[in-house]
Amino acid sequence: MKQSMARSRRLKRPCISLTFALLCLFLVTVVYITAYTVGKFSMDARGREKLDLTDRIIHSMTKRFQECQAQKQLLKNGHTTARMALEIAQETKKKLEMELGLMRNRNTLMLQSVEECKKELELLKENGRGAVTLALQLDRLTKERQFYMDAIAVVNGSSDVGRRQTADVFAAIAKEFDEWEDAAQNKTELLTNCNNAMRRYSIVFDAGSTGSRVHVFRYNLTSTPHAGNFSWNGTRPSLTSFLRLDDELFVENYEPLSGLANPNDAVASLSPLIEAAKAYIPESLHACVPIEMKATAGLRRIGREHAEAVLDVVRRLFARGPFWMQSELDSVRILEGWEEGPLAWLTVNYLLGALNGDKNTATILDLGGGSTQIVMHPSDPKAIEAYAEFSYALKVNGRSFVVYQHSYEGNGLHAAKEQLLQAVAANNTGANSKVQEANKIATGTEATPGASADVAVDAFPCFPKGYVHTETGISNTRDGGKVPSMEECSALFRRHVVRKHQPCGSNSCGFNGVFQPDISAVPMVPVYAFSFYYDRLKPYIKDEVIRVQDVLDIASQVCRSMKSVRELLEQNDTKKNKGSLKPEMECFELSYLFTLLRYGFGFPPEQKLHIAKKINGFETAWALGASLVSLEGQSA
């Protein structure tokens, strides 16, 4: 009996131990679930609050950053009054204080979350020691939450490291505000001077292949653009609509930057030009004046690495002051060939007053030594909308223009002559038939009677009698030479240089396979021709306006009456020396001008041309257009 009872007690003890273990496991589970549920609910609510605070902070800082960028630009432009600057500073201070309060509230919530996580972990560990499985899970949970707390600590200041980083952020924000407020207060006089000045200035350097030139444009302010209530978010008018060009300082040197062996020599080359600008502009306005330099063909030819080294030196020079360089990369750079024409178009039409109202804009023709440009504004925008590579967008006086532009490289006056001479010489090297056949295929034209290659080589119709071109051997010496002929010279240009019938993939072509809107798309608008058009035609015209037919008549008369080369060299004909640097080239060059106008661009004989070097006393060059683009970026 005793043995039976003892056996029974031994059997019950394991049952009691198992029951106790299960009860402990149940209690731990209940505690865990309860703690998890309560904690999760609490953390979810706090998490939503933290997310809301974070969103508000981000929104506030983003908006403040955008406003600061706009304010910084207007401060530089000199279009913010002292009163406005102080109001902006005070408003920015309020926003910073609000953001600081939001950050502190968010930080407090994060610290509370971390402390609750720590307590929860300790509680779970303390009550779950008897359950091996739960202990392992709790260890894993501990590591995960520790990782989470470390991340929170770094970002939100819930550890020494985090608190230091948060303090650094607050200090940086406070420093930013202090610097901004100091700048606003220190520049009160500058801002007042810039805003109240009834004259505005713009400096444009033209770094060309023969030297550097500085244009300082002076504008009169026709009215006060700051009248009315001030609003950062409101639409502000273009500054150029309030300006009228009044005067220009022009100073040049003959030291091309492209010829400098050492890029650092650019400082010595440009410094006298900067000093001239400083003397011309009142010192109180120096910091308000934008300065820029655009380099043309000279720097394009020397290689990008060397050119960039020169440009970097110029950027550092301009950055020293006292003038305002709006953008380092854009203010000092190489001006691409396709930009020159549109900027010259802008110059001409600004001087004509054609950028306001419904007045027709002028077409411009620019003839240089190496290239020629044409820019027009078609009345129908659809004429060029499918040809993006020939379009150029401009905005000035609050109006937008999309113009057609093209620069014919190799079709400038000197390049065209050289191209023709080389073509004629190539046709007389024993391979005449092959070259002529290739020209027929390329141009779609037959040889012109009276201008065959074998005749042209020693009876070149563009030269005066007796002239020999030493570089190519082309001459007008056969049988003592013949009277030059504009018709025959033009025919050679049409065959070899101005190839009108070469296809361009459109029904409307210029020449040499280049798309160009039909001239009829710009019906009888003013056409301004300058550079070599002016230099070669001005000695023969009394009025500024002539017709294409007049160019034909002038060229024909000059060729017919041209003296022999001996007579040209012996006499001192003042009129002709003004018309050409080399009188023996006049028939040659005038024939090209007519060919380009009539058969290249396709202008009808009755088309009127304004042969202009200046309009209202200002040169028809791209520099003024660049100045207007720079000023257009300054809101009034």
Automatic annotation (TrEMBL):
Which InterPro entries is this protein grouped with?
A: GDA1_CD39_NTPase
Could you say which residues bind ATP here?
Answer: G369, G370, S371, T372, Q373
Top-level taxon of origin: Eukaryota
Question: Which terms in the Gene Ontology molecular function aspect does this entry carry?
Answer: ATP binding; hydrolase activity
User: Which UniProt keywords are present, listed alphabetically?
Assistant: ATP-binding, Coiled coil, Hydrolase, Nucleotide-binding
Ranges in a coiled coil: 86-127
> Which residue positions are annotated as catalytic?
E340
Which Pfam families does this one have? GDA1_CD39
What EC number(s) does its UniProt record assign? 3.6.1.-
Enzyme class (EC, first level)? hydrolase
Per the record, the similarity remark reads: Belongs to the GDA1/CD39 NTPase family.
Note the PANTHER family from the entry.
ADENOSINE/GUANOSINE DIPHOSPHATASE, NTPASE, ISOFORM F
Q: What is this protein called?
A: Nucleoside phosphatase, putative
Originating organism: Trypanosoma cruzi (strain CL Brener)
